[in-house]
Structures are given as structure tokens and as C-alpha cells.
Amino acid sequence: MKTKAILISSMLLAGLAPAAFAQQGTVSGAAGGAVTGAIVGGPIGAAVGGVVGAVAGTAIDPPPEKVVTYVQEQPMPADTVVVQEKVVVGKPVPETVVLTPVPDSPKYSYAVVNRERVIVDPQTRTVVKVIN
């Protein structure tokens, strides 16, 4: 009975820990993944969880508030690019989408796709934030 309670607690923690650490970036993602992996799978789980957490933390690291504010304040163009794919965080925008650099923040560009403003990593074209 005690083993069952520990297993259920571990599974619940495994489900919650990645969400808690997702917004903290690579270091926190790695730490959270390692802790979760250790609880669920011992030392091997810690190693695997650390790698998975680091990747997840890197993928969804949000842009600074000044970048978000800058993009929100830009005028909406009269004609926007329309793509068939849904624009989501973590996925690249198509090559047909023209990216506009964010001044003083070379790590970020933006575009308006399907009438939504998106902030993008210009090196990988990966969406880091969708602004509705």
C-alpha cells in the first residue's frame, strides 16, 4: 500500500514539475527535469530528465517584456501573411514569412502571420511567443 502511494505521488509530481519549470529557461529546466527523473526513475531517470528539461526550457524561454511591448506597439500591416499551418510556440514559421528585427534585441524578430503578431528567433525562425 505504501509503495502504491509513493508511485502515485511520484507520477503526480512528474506531471507538475515540467510545467513549473517550463518558463525558467535551460538551467531551471534541466534542474526540474533531473529532480523529476530522479523521483520517477532513480539515477538514470535523473540524467534523462535533466536532458529533457534542458531542451524544454530552451524551447519555450519567453522574450523580455520590452520586446513584447515593442511588438505590440507596432502598427498592424494592411496585408498580412496567411499560412495554412497553425502558428505555435516552438515551431518554425515558413520561409515565406518576412521577419522584422526588433531594435536593440538582436535575439528577436517579429512578423504578423494570420493576423497574429509572433515573436521569432531569427536564427532558427522558431516562434517564441504568439501575441493575440
Can you describe this structure in just a few lines?
With 132 residues, this protein is an alpha+beta fold. Helices cover 48% and strands 18% of the residues. The protein has 2 domains: 2-59; 65-131, no CATH class.
Protein traits:
4-stranded antiparallel β-sheet; 2 domains; alpha+beta; 3 helices; DUF1236; 132 residues; signal; DUF1236 domain-containing protein
Write a structural description.
There is one protein chain. Helix content is 48%, strand content 18%. It is an alpha+beta fold. It folds into 2 domains: 2-59; 65-131, no CATH class. Strands 1-2-3-4 form a 4-stranded antiparallel beta sheet, with helices on one face. A hairpin with a 2-residue loop joins strand 1 and strand 2. The termini are far apart. The model is unreliable at 4-28 (pLDDT under 50). This is DUF1236 domain-containing protein. InterPro entries: DUF1236 (IPR009642). It comes from Neorhizobium lilium. Keywords: Signal.
Nearest-angstrom radius of gyration? 19 Å
The poorly predicted ranges are: 4-28
**Global outline:** elongated
In percent, how helical is the residue content?
Answer: 40-55%
The figure for the number of domains is 2
β-strand amount: 15-25%
Q: Order of strands side by side in the largest beta sheet? A: 1-2-3-4
- Count of extended strands: 4
By helix and strand content, what is the structural category?
alpha+beta
User: Overall pLDDT, averaged?
Assistant: 75
Order of helices and strands: HHHEEEE
Largest sheet: 4 strands, antiparallel
Distance linking N and C termini: 48 Å
| Total helical segments | 3
InterPro entries: DUF1236 (IPR009642)
Keywords: Signal
Pfam families: DUF1236
Protein name: DUF1236 domain-containing protein
